[in-house]
């Protein structure tokens, strides 16, 4: 178990398995000319598996695969099956834009991947294309239904964008009322050197909740501390509804005090705080014939123990600058 200098148990790891994505969301990865990390610099499946086993040794209980878009990576479903065979007890999660999920829900359910995060910033097809640069709304919407049909718990993540999707609150609340999903608004964060973050887009948590209350009777959901797996979202039940509303407020009400995350970038670096550019590069160490996974394990332990409290870094935001330079597609959200 890694306990850091602030007494936090670091037991959750997010792994970006590729920086490639089939969408071009204006706030995440805006341009076609974005340079992809060369293939040889991406961690191989073998290496990812070794890291996951090492993480288990270090007391990591939950691992989330993310990207870029994890499902664009070649042979991804075979990789999932292999992870399940070799780490059957692992609490494995997936964050995806779900554009390639069609037909995959039975496999996910079969390997016990029974919780999924699906990103969907709008419920309108035309606007989906404007935000993402691709006409894939129908596929995503169908994938959500397929997951629910196979008993997979779905969290729908919406990046809250003022002037872009705030007018859709009535539709969002109807969606969460009619489907058994957690619909979670995430405050837009100024991540990445070329971030499109601007004050005009910032839709703060307080306003999201006020607007949601105009369309639904909401009651704060108090999670059982023993079984709490909801991460940083403040959850609300919706009277007469099947789903719940969640609000994640990394900026207006940061949750650094309870952050338990390590992040692995697709190019093989460890980041211990989303808001810090400090990276522990371990790819060369992992590939070194004499160092290998044992040396990487020592590095992870030391880095985990030195995990910073990120809100100090958030002060950068007040100066209207991105809080870190690496693109979200390489870090994985
Ligand atoms: N492609 C996958 C997906 O769409 O879920 C996984 C990677 S994506 C980087 C993970 C999440 O980060 C998505 O929900 C995306 O909307 C969110 N995201 C990207 N940039 C963000 C930002 N600047 N602020 C808040 N969330 C952001």
Q: Could you tell me how far the N terminus lies from the C terminus, measured between alpha carbons in angstroms?
A: 24 Å
The hetero molecules present are:
S-adenosylmethionine
Strand content of the residues, in percent? Answer: 15-25%
CATH fold descriptor: TIM Barrel
In CATH, the architecture is Alpha-Beta Barrel
Q: Any idea how many domains? A: 1
Shape: globular
User: Fraction of residues in helices?
Assistant: 25-40%
Strand order of the largest sheet: 9-10-11-8-7-6-5-4-3-12-13-14
The residue ranges in which pLDDT falls below 50 over 5 or more consecutive positions are none
Radius of gyration over C-alpha positions, nearest whole angstrom: 19 Å
Based on secondary structure, the structural category is alpha/beta
Number of beta strands: 14
The named CATH superfamily: Aldolase class I
Order of helices and strands: EEEHEHEHEHHEHEHEEEEEEHHHH
In DSSP terms (H or I, runs of 4 or more residues), the helix count works out at 11
Largest sheet, in brief, is: 12 strands, mixed
CATH hierarchy, class:
Alpha Beta
């Amino acid at each position: 178990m890694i306990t850091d200098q602030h007494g936090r148990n670091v037991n959750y790891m997010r792994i970006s398995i590729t920086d490639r994505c089939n969408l071009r969301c204006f706030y995440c990865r805006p341009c076609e000319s974005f340079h992809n990390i060369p293939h040889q610099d991406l961690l191989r499946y073998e290496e990812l598996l070794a890291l996951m086993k090492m993480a288990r040794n270090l007391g990591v209980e939950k691992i989330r695969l993310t990207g870029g878009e994890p499902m664009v990576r070649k042979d991804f479903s075979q990789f999932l099956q292999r992870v399940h065979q070799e780490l059957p007890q692992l609490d494995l999660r997936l964050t995806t834009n779900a554009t390639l999920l069609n037909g995959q829900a039975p496999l996910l359910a079969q390997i016990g991947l029974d919780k999924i995060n699906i990103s969907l910033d709008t419920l309108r097809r035309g606007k989906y294309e404007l935000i993402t640069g691709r006409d894939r709304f129908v596929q995503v919407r169908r994938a959500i239904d397929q997951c629910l049909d196979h008993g997979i718990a779905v969290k729908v993540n919406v990046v809250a964008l003022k002037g872009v999707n705030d007018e859709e609150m009535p539709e969002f609340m109807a969606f969460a009322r009619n489907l058994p999903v957690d619909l979670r608004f995430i405050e837009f964060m100024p991540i990445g050197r070329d971030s499109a973050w601007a004050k005009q887009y910032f839709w703060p948590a307080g306003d999201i909740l006020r607007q949601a209350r105009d369309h639904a009777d909401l009651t704060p959901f108090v999670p059982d501390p023993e079984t709490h797996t909801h991460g940083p979202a403040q959850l609300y039940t919706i009277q007469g509804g099947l789903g719940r509303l969640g609000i994640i407020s990394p900026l207006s009400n940061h949750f650094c005090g309870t952050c338990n995350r390590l992040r692995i970038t697709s190019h093989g670096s460890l980041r211990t705080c989303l808001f810090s550019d400090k990276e522990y590069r371990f790819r060369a160490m992992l590939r070194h014939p004499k160092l290998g996974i044992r040396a990487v394990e020592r590095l992870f332990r030391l880095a985990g123990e030195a995990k910073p409290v990120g809100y100090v870094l958030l002060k950068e935001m007040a100066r209207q600058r991105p809080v870190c330079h690496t693109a979200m597609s390489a870090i994985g959200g």
